Amino acid sequence: MQMGRRKAGGRPINGWLVIDKASEMTSTHVVNVVKRLTQAQKVGHGGTLDPLATGVLPIAMGEATKTVAYIMDARKSYRFILRFGEARDTDDAAGAVIATSDQRPTDDAIRDALPRFEGLIQQVPPQYAAVKVLGERAYDIARRGEKVELAAREIRVDELQLVRRPDSDHGEFRMTCGKGAYVRSIARDLGQLLGCLAHVEQLRRTEVGAFNLDNAVSLEALARIVENETLPQVLVPMTTALAGIPALAVTEPQALRLRAGQPVRVTPALLGDGAAGDTATVRAMRAGELIALARLEGMELSPMRVFQHGPMPIGNRE
Questions:
Q1: Angle (CA) 179 13 37, round 5°
Q2: How far apart are CA 304 and CA 318, in angstroms?
Q3: Cβ–Cβ < 8 Å for 75, 26
Q4: For the domain bounded by 76-208, which CATH number is listed?
Q5: Is residue 293 within 8 Å of 302, Cβ to Cβ?
Q6: Strand 76-84 vs strand 170-177: parallel, antiparallel, or unpaired?
Q7: Catalytic residue among 50, 89, 91, 189
Q8: What gap in Å lies between CA 291 and CA 283, rounded to an integer?
Q9: Rounded CA gap, 284 and 271, in Å?
Q10: E strands within the chain?
């Protein structure tokens, strides 16, 4: 993670910034604010959060945008509150009420139902979802008042637990899941299974891969950080997003060849823990610096994603 003097089109900032997103704000809006505050050349996010939701929104800057796909695939954790007795068109509190029920589930009924939503399950996304249907976002179709049949998709839920019942109308839950899982769909389907209807009233994402609330900052705090020129202190290294990929140490000549897009031959002595095998994806590292994501086949290492960054002095904002 480096910062340098601003060039045309923005400053060359490389690394991850973990934002604690506020409610009533889109993920795209957060990206735009971060880009304006930091004046970074390139900014993107690692996984959309609904406007209603708060919590961890990883922001990739510069060369870190090349690792976004690995964060999108990472495991995610949520804390959320369900409101029983109401179904809404968006499956969360932002939508309009479309049905009500006087039934309220017991704690035991909820706990007995939760195992149905764990493991590999089939889940239909909410009508108001970012999934595309014939090239158009489902939420755009829903906003026109049209209904679309969304296909069920296989998702993975590692954990789904009832944490507490503040009252008979609400339940607080904790969930850890894989890519593509919708908390809003869990609320909808759980409410239907329990015969009481339900929607998400509050939603907070607590983890995305190696990123969590411990290293997250609000946009208000980011504005102060940038003003105080202490941004490097909160940037997270690019390699954090790749923590699950084995590391492989390369020599300086090999690093130069990889960055030029050329394959290199490696020896067993250079292989990091867990990198051995017929075929594997590895992080090519040189002196603690990420050189490339590469495919290791036998003893040949071929670059897939090259990172063209080097030491940059921290400059002022002018």
A1: 90
A2: 35
A3: no
A4: 3.30.2350.10
A5: no
A6: antiparallel
A7: 50
A8: 8
A9: 10
A10: 15-21, 43-45, 54-61, 76-84, 86-88, 97-100, 119-123, 132-133, 136-137, 153-167, 170-177, 198-208, 211-212, 216-217, 247-249, 264-265, 279-286, 289-297, 300-306
- Spatial contact of 236 and 216, defined as CB atoms under 8 Å apart: no
Residue-wise pLDDT tens digits, 137-190: 877 887 888 788 888 999 999 999 999 999 999 999 999 999 999 999 999 999
CATH class label, 15-74+210-240: alpha beta
pLDDT tier for residue 87 given thresholds of 50, 70 and 90: very high
Q: Can 50 be counted among the known catalytic residues?
A: yes
Superfamily (CATH H level) for 245-306: PUA domain (2.30.130.10)
Q: For residue 202, how many other CB atoms are within 10 A of its CB?
A: 17
Mean pLDDT, rounded, for 32-46: 93
Q: State yes or no: pLDDT of 5 exceeds 60.
A: no
Task: Please say whether the beta carbons of 243 and 276 come within 8 A.
Answer: no
On whether the pTM is more than 0.90, the answer is no
User: 15-74+210-240 and 76-208: same fold?
Assistant: yes
- Tokens, residue 305: 């994603």
